[in-house]
Amino acid sequence: MSLTCSRGISLLLSTCGRERNVRLGSSIHAFVLKDPQFVYLGYQFNTQNALVVWNSLLTMYARCGRTYDAAQVFDEMPMKDTVSWNSIISGFVNNGNFNMGFGYFKEMMGSGCFKFDHASLTTILSACDGRGFLSLNKMIHGLVVLSGMEREISVSNALVTSYFRCGCANSGRQVFDEMDVRNVISWTAVISGLAQNEFCEESLDLFVEMQGAVVVPNYLTYLSALLACSGIKALGEARQIHGIVWKLGFHSDLCIESALMDVYSKCGSVQDAWQMFESAEVLDTIAMTVMLVGFAQNGYEEEALQIFVKMVKSGVDIDPDVVSAVLGVFGSDTSLGLGRQVHSLIIKKGFISNSFVSNGLINMYSKCGQLEESVEIFNSIARRNSVSWNSIIAAYARHGNGYRALQLYEEMRSDGVDPTDVTFISLLHACSHVGLVNKGMEFFESMQSIYGMTPRMEHYAAVVDLLGRAGLLSEAKSFIEGLTVKPDILIWQALLGACSIHGDAEMGKYAADQWVLVSPDNPVPYVLLANIYSSRGRWKDRARTIKKMKEMGVAKETGTSWIEIEKEVHSFVVADQMHPRAMIIYSTLSELFRHMRDEGYVPDNRLILYYMDSDEKEFSVDLRDTSELLCSMW
């Protein structure tokens, strides 16, 4: 058998594997079996050539996903070498059957005839993904050290990557620090691993250190650095990286573009993200999803929905990730009709079995005021995970049915599903709405003592709301003062909201002052405090608060109300005359108000500066007066 012949067959088999042409590959297999040169190995030259062909057969079947056929070829091979073992190991590992692949690895080690090499180790390490693989990862690390292969740069790189994937960042960093020689893959692996494990500042520090090293970063390195910027909202650093990738010509790479859009969106610089989106030559599903989520996270719900509609109309392939992202946009001011259309699309595409999508539907319907439909979706889910339970518990809490929310929590535990930190936020809100202070505090303590969870700012704010709504404002203040973390807007918003409910002006001023210190450009604390003063008849204090807001250059956003009619959302502001049917609407409202007065309705005018008393002045159908009267009613 000539060398040219064996190389030709090997090349054909390689092409079959790459193109997944198992039909041609199996025909070549039949030819090999019929040729005695490949079956009966006589001399050394024949053996080497035949092994190349047999290993190529093995790899071809593995690449075509035919692992059973690959195993059969492996068993029938007249002779094997380390390449043969590596081929069968990688074949199973790459096709998702790690147990079989690792079984062959152990069999190779136990045979005594073959010794693993760097390819054997990197194949096993590539499959170590998740905390469940940490022990195995450490065992392979031991083999690497014992065999002296830690000097192999590809093995060390694989160790760094696998440790970070297993959530063991310290070990990953240690392997990197102990490497004598590092290439761009080494640096990128550790920068990416640190960012993915939320050590974003350390990741960026290492990226800066790399700039002074001999190794030149590649586009994957910049991608990892942008991920770190997203994690800590490092807008300045992101802009610098943007400038570098622009100079290097990486800016048109789809992944880089999506990463830049993501970091700009997370840093609140939506305009920059939109410019990236608009200037992109090619837009894929990932870029559109990133922009959609970016709009949603920054309060541009309408724009996010427009992106989604554009995606559907332009024929972009919609996947479950896109659908779950757009479902998160829906709220009380969003079109329920559009939400139902998205639901229809989900059914049409067969996404309803996707847990993220079904959970998104539960949230969408509950936020749009359709609790019954949320319950229907929840009941239709065959396998409910913690997110499913969290969604339905939050739905009932959102609709004020706290007792049912607590009931569902007990059902969740009976179902064997452990609560998450999100579960406790919903439970605290549920207890707050029904006044179960002691029960709520039990939940708060149990999440730490029983489940070992560290409360987030949302949990602290929920506790303040729980105490505040129950009228325990002093206790709420003491709770805040006892926190080991610095309170943010959520805390002061909860306390000031409770003060609004109970009309406590002194505590309200304290909460508002603290809120202004944290967020000086926010008009809400001024407005809420002014309303508290109005409710107590302290008009001068109210006037001083509004004057201070104006002096600080803080503008109050116009209040809006809305209603959906025939899948169209109609929005209104005070004294709104822009609607095409404004005169008819105001005339109807005026007539309704007359009927209400005739029935004895007395408007609550504590929260408005001016009210037209019908005993002093005849009621007229003036648009501005009507809107003010309606504001007093609402």
UniProtKB/TrEMBL annotation:
GO molecular-function terms, A-Z: RNA binding
Gene: PCMP-E83_1
Alphabetized NCBIfam families for the sequence: PPR
PPR repeats: 50-80, 81-115, 183-217, 284-318, 385-419
UniProt source species: Nicotiana attenuata
Domain of life: Eukaryota
A GO BP annotation: RNA modification
Protein name: Pentatricopeptide repeat-containing protein
Keyword field: Repeat
Signal peptide segment: none
